[in-house]
Amino acid sequence: MSILNYFFIGTAFTFIVDLLLGMEYIKNHPKMQIVKWGIKERIACIFIWPVGALIFSVAFIKQFFKN
Fold first, then answer.
1. Largest Cα–Cα distance of the chain, in whole Å?
2. Cα 48 vs. chain centroid, distance in angstroms?
3. What is the pTM assigned to this prediction?
4. What's the CA gap between 65 and 6, in Å, rounded?
């Protein structure tokens, strides 16, 4: 995998997260009121997208398997 592929995947992942965070029912959720999603966070997400993808996946799966 070249460095350009890595950045492209990171950009695509960040775009998808950005779209999800822009949805009204997610944006108005009480836990999302404390989350800051600015340009610094987007750039960091592009560089460390595997960690972001893992955190997102775990939170998404936990949503369906609550106690």
1. 42
2. 11
3. 0.66
4. 31
